[in-house]
Structures are given as structure tokens and as C-alpha cells.
Amino acid sequence: MKLHEQLARRLGMTRAEIAAVSVLLVLFLLGTAVGGWKNSVPEEKFLNNSPPEQHDALVDSLLAEARKLRETPVTQDTQAPRSGKAPSRSGTSKIEFTTASIEELSSIPGISTVLATRLLEFRDSRNTKIERFDEFSEVKGIGPQRISVLKQHLILP
Q: In this protein, which residues make up the domain named Helix-hairpin-helix DNA-binding motif class (predicted)?
């Protein structure tokens, strides 16, 4: 005998009744699964398109530095000269990199305390033997734009 016939005989139901109960059971299970899935993911996640505010202090400081760099215009007049002597500027003094502190470095536009710390660690790892500004590209977070800002504010030996 077929399974349907055996089940109908034991339950005392016709094949049509068994089919109806089976359809209802499948719909119930499907509804329960969809409801459970819907409740497992909060609706706010789908309705709110803004990114979650889970940035740590490092990311926030790097974003602030990027904003400062965009606001600081870099022109030919403000870049450091390529030959030996730096022009004397009234009002702004350059910082000697070999003796600079974290506070002095973080006073440079676009350099946060995190980047200042990295620069000092880089200086210590090189035993203060940094001859070219291009060497700063080895520091995480320092790219060509920040190097041009450092050229404006630092003096290398």
C-alpha cells in the first residue's frame, strides 16, 4: 500500500483531508520561518541608510586629518624649496624634526597626535637619520599630500 492510504486508514481521514492538512502544515511552518527571520534582523537596519557609528578614535582622527588636508591649499609658493636653504618666513617658524615633540608635530595642520606618535617612532627607528622627505612615505597614514605639508613645516638635518 501507498503511504497516503496507510496514513488515511490510521488517522481515519480521506486523501483530500490529508492533502488539506498537509498544505496547512506547510504554510504554518513557512510562516513561522519567515516570522523568525524577520524578527532576527531589526527593521531599523533596513530603514536607516546611514552607516553605523562604530569608528574608533584612530579612524576619527584620520578622518579629521583628511578634512584638514583638503582645507589646506598647496601651491607652488608654499612648497619647500628644492635647494639648500629654506626661505625665511616672518610669522611662521619651521620645526626641527630631530628634536620635535609630539605637541609640536601635532600642531602641524593635518597631523594628529596619532600620526605625530608614528612620526616619532619612525624617527627613533632610524636613529634620527632621515635625509629626505620622501622617506616619510614609509609611515602609515603619510602620503604625497601630507609630505608636501611636512615640507612646509619641518626642517631635516
A: 103-122, 134-153
What is the tens place of the pLDDT at every residue in 122-149? 888 888 788 888 998 899 889 999 999 9
Distance CA 53, CA 45 (A): 13
Give the span between the Cα atoms of 157 and 154, in whole angstroms.
10
How many Å from the N-terminal Cα to the C-terminal Cα in the chain? 97
Domain holding 13, by residue range, is: 3-47
Confirm if 80 and 97 have CB atoms less than 8 A apart: no
Q: Which helix (H) or strand (E) holds 155?
A: strand 154-155
Using one digit for the tens of pLDDT, what is the confidence trace for 82-103?
Answer: 544 444 433 468 889 888 999 9
**Whether 71 and 135 share a structural domain:** yes
The CA–CA distances, whole Å, from 90 to 48, 76, 115, 118, 129 equal: 52, 18, 27, 30, 29
